Amino acid sequence: MQLIKTKAIVIHSLPYGESDLIVTFFSPASGIIKGMARGARKSRKRFQGSLEPFATVMLGAAVKESGALARVDTADLVNARLGIRSDLKKYGAGSVILELVSIFEVSGASDEVFRLTETVLDLLERSSASLSLLAAFFPRYLRLSGFAIPLSSCGRCGADLGLTGAMYAGGFSIYCTRCSPPAEASIGRGTVAFLRRAEIVGEEAIGRLKLGSRDEKDALDFLGRFASAAAGKRLKTLDIAGEF
Ligand SMILES: [Zn+2]
């Protein structure tokens, strides 16, 4: 058993028994930590509402041998991000971000991934374009987790997808309009340019990238399919985000 003290983002919180919570955290050094917070639902004083999704906390926990739940001792609130929880649209977009973080656990590059996730959640709290922000998060996060979206050139003829637009027919290849097999999803040239920029601009600048609402929908349909292929299962939260 090892005692740790680390900054962490609350990903998920699940009631257990009458008074406990099973909480999933994401931390820079240890990645995903799943722990049991005893008495968290009975005593409000002990955790002060800090075990809610989107919050950043200073976590004190006893981490056990692989596979076993950690023991959550303290979770002092650093940033509750109530602005995400009180707005349905932001909540939907934020839920997709947290699901991506929990599915594509990145080992080794956790500091950068953690910083990116915090920055994007902070931007989301202030943003008026939450779906654009979510669309910009995808390519960047997927690249860090080893699933970069090949948006530079057609997977068959090598044409610049920025000039042709991109077609997606499943798997990990992206094609131009001429080479694509029957496609599941497609995005226009402007959206290709948007996603390429999102990968390379400074983190704070991600919040200034905007798509029209029609392009946001196309982008998220495409990104959701690509990420689901990479994950080997359909992302659960995408349907919620798409509602708004
Ligand atoms: Zn082609």
In this entry the ligands are: zinc ion
Q: What is the approximate shape?
A: elongated
| Biggest beta sheet summary | 5 strands, mixed, barrel
Structural class: alpha+beta
- How many DSSP-defined strands? 8
* Total number of distinct structural domains: 2
Number of helices: 9
Terminus-to-terminus distance: 44 Å
Low-confidence stretches: none
- CATH superfamily membership of the largest domain, which one? Recombination protein O, C-terminal domain
Question: Could you name the CATH class of the largest domain?
Answer: Mainly Alpha
Integer-rounded radius of gyration: 19 Å
Order of helical and strand elements: EEEHEEHHHHHEEEHHH
CATH level 3 topology of the largest domain? de novo design (two linked rop proteins)
Could you describe the 3D structure shown?
By secondary structure, this protein is α+β, with helices and mostly antiparallel strands. The protein has 2 domains: 79 residues, Nucleic acid-binding proteins (OB fold (Dihydrolipoamide Acetyltransferase, E2P), Beta Barrel), CATH 2.40.50.140; 160 residues, Up-down Bundle (de novo design (two linked rop proteins)), CATH 1.20.1440.120. The chain contains 9 helices and 8 strands. A 5-stranded mixed beta barrel has the order 1-2-3-5-4. Strands 7-6-8 form a 3-stranded antiparallel beta sheet. It is elongated, with a radius of gyration of 19 Å. The model has no long low-confidence stretch (mean pLDDT 92). Bound molecules: zinc ion (ZN). The site of zinc ion has 8 residues, from loops.
